[in-house]
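Provenance and format

Records in this collection were gathered into a single text stream. Each protein contributes a sequence line and a token line. The two records reproduced below are adjacent in the stream.
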Amino acid sequence: MGWEVFPLAIRRIVNGNHAILRSHARPVQKINDAIITLLDDMAETMYENKGVGLAAPQIGIAKRLIVVDPGEDRLIKLINPRCLEWEGETVDVEGCLSIPGIYGEVPRASRVLVEALDTRGKQLRLEAEGFLARILQHEIDHLDGILFLDRAIRLVDPEEEKKEEGS
């Protein structure tokens, strides 16, 4: 019997009222085909929804898994990620696939050091700055039941922001 090929699946993103978004995700104990497929589905779902990051709780699964792509098709899949170091601070506007249409100014560390497992179970450390650092912090927050609204210092209307930039 040959290998079966399963197509990637686009998962439903849960909204901000869903209880799973406020719970702590469980660590992944064993990296198997189901976890790899889940990460692939998460990436497909993120791209389909034009996001730059997605955490497993956002698709209703309480596991410590995230996918991020800061641009240029630079997909990063992380298992059991955690921030080891934070440095500096920057404030920028964030949104969230689980809270569509709402944006806020959120202070974040400008540089982070993240430790995680890759899809082969190998431990890695990822040093990130700028946009990638922001995405990683946002998605790791999801694993701990924290939404960007909890950290926002001010909500913003994207249409108003565009008008101010144009004047």
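Adjacent record:
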Amino acid sequence: MKTRRRPYAEQRPQDLGGGVWSVPVPIPGNPLGYTLVYAVESPKGPVLVDAGWNHPEAWEALSGGLATLGIDVSAVSGVVVTHFHPDHAGLAGQVREASGGWIAMHGSDAALVRLMTEYAASEHDSFQSDMLRRAGADPGEARQGLGGRPTPPAMPDRELRDGDLVDLPGRKLRVLHTPGHTPGHICLHLEDADRLFTGDHVLPDITPHVGIYPYDRDDVDPLGDFLDSLDRVGDLGPLDALPAHEWIFPDVAARAAEIRHHHEEKLVRLRALLAERPVPLTIWEVAAMMTWNRPWDQLSPVLRGMAAGEAAAHLRALEARGQIRRLSGVDLVRFQALDS
């Protein structure tokens, strides 16, 4: 198993043994570089785990990469999407058109794809601007933070649930529902080979984005769900991990524990930050005080919006644990530490 990061230019389609192959599919203009798409052998034809970004360069890399491994994209029997984000689900529809295969994803993400499909661009902009304003962004930031309406991926033909076996004759590929990064994120346990396709849930070097949208929701706890999901992955033991980004690595349980520890430390620091302040803080104020991979004033408006979503998820987790409280005003929501 490779444990050293390699840039996309060095990445090549690989035979990983045991009827599993990987193909790096570029994400144009994204620092992640590529999505690792996996193919798993079956008598009906290979099943792909994710498909990559919907872009001509990505399609050429996917179809050409499969071809170098002796796989014609027309032979693909299905695509299992770990989650609905465009760097994972974007090309699933094109694979389906080329092969006649099926697309499967968890029902919670399928519901979001339906919502995205029904959502008008004007409704999206209004929703996003209002969300930023309620979080405490000034009107100018609220306008600049509009990220544009994402193009919905193809609707799946099949909806998966936790514990389901994927349609993969001769193999055992079981669905493990791991919400957090998205409500319907799944990992896939290849039980006959003790491998785990981790999607974005567990990555070897970076931690996935876990946000809450709208920021001020109080009926969900995505970070709490994510931490519980990390524990579920840890219970599987030291399996080899096949993630969607970066590189393949051993002992997914150890890495899951590291990521959990990272977020627990972040929660401790965040509660201390709130306890030091005599007045309640907005989500935007909290996000500006937290540590990111670059200073707050150097983040683009879109990245500030993502940071605010992550700050909101951490605030919601502390609220769910009874360590802070929210104060809802007419337009703004603020948070305040409770006495220990």
